[in-house]
């Protein structure tokens, strides 16, 4: 009964006003099994969910869009993650779409680099420092003013001034501050300066441990134009991330689903 009602409502859907689309991958079950969801980020509604995560999912999405009075070339913004497949899918099919790298996805790349530095430092440090670093993952992801007293004490014990993890965290906080810039021109200058500073810090400390941060800076440099598109269009994938959270919560409550069609 539910499937019949959803199918009937979807058949009547009108996508003629869709001009800003977002795509996000959802892990549907254990292993590398994904669904890709597409949404109208301006109207905040789901347009399609389809199996897979490659650029072929864009072909299915655009077919569904045009079946519901939409048009692929009416899409002017495509908010996607930083994978080549996502960008290729929109570029090859939507000639007027500007690629917008979602700021949370970009930030996640930098956060992941900090965590890689922390793990490498824990493996190379002495037993005491390694044990302390092991339980500080959440602390490095917080703003200093949000740390608990216990977290502050633990970080102080690490003598953070001498830690590569602390240097990586300082770079992460600088990067987060870049999104407060009011214009794309100011953001461009600061993003380029951040990339240079990251490489300089890594050379200054001659620290191979900072290699993940250098790699993250390279990613930012390669995707600079699509990152700066955020200032022009102001779209994010927050709506899609919220749907992902609801989907994962529902999946856990149901103890998983045997079929993806469910």
Task: Write up what this structure looks like.
By secondary structure, the protein is α/β, with parallel strands linked by helices. It folds into 2 domains: 2-102 and 236-253, Ribonuclease H-like superfamily/Ribonuclease H (Nucleotidyltransferase, domain 5, 2-Layer Sandwich), CATH 3.30.420; 106-224, no CATH class. Helices cover 57% and strands 13% of the residues. The chain is built from 12 helices and 5 strands. The chain has a 5-stranded mixed β-sheet, sandwiched between helices. Helix 2 packs across helix 3, helix 4 (103-124) runs antiparallel to helix 8 and helix 4 packs antiparallel against helix 10 (211-222). The longest helix is centred in the middle third of the chain and has 22 residues, at 103-124. The protein is globular. The two termini are 13 Å apart. The model has no long low-confidence stretch (mean pLDDT 82).
């Amino acid at each position: 009964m539910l499937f019949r009602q959803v199918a009937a409502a979807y058949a009547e859907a009108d996508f003629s006003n869709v001009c800003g689309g977002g795509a996000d991958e959802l892990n549907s079950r254990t292993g590398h099994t994904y669904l890709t969801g597409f949404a109208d980020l301006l109207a905040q509604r789901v347009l399609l969910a389809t199996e897979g995560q490659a650029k072929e999912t864009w072909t299915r999405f655009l077919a569904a869009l045009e079946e519901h009075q939409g048009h692929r070339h009416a899409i002017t913004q495509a908010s996607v993650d930083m994978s080549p497949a996502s960008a290729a899918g929109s570029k090859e099919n939507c000639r007027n779409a500007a690629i917008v790298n979602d700021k949370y996805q970009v930030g996640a790349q930098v956060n992941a680099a900090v965590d890689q530095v922390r793990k490498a430092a824990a493996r190379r440090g002495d037993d005491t420092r390694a044990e302390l670093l092991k339980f500080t993952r959440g602390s490095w992801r917080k703003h200093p003013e949000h740390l608990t007293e216990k977290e502050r004490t633990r970080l102080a014990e690490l003598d953070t001034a001498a830690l590569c993890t602390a240097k990586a965290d300082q770079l992460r906080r600088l990067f987060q501050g870049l999104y407060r810039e009011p214009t794309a021109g100011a953001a461009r200058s600061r993003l380029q300066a951040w990339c240079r500073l990251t490489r300089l810090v890594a050379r200054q400390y001659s620290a191979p441990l900072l290699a993940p941060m250098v790699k993250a800076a390279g990613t930012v440099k390669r995707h600079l134009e699509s990152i700066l598109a955020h200032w022009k269009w102001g779209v994010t994938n927050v709506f899609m991330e919220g749907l992902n959270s609801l989907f994962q919560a529902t999946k856990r409550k149901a103890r998983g689903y045997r079929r993806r069609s469910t």
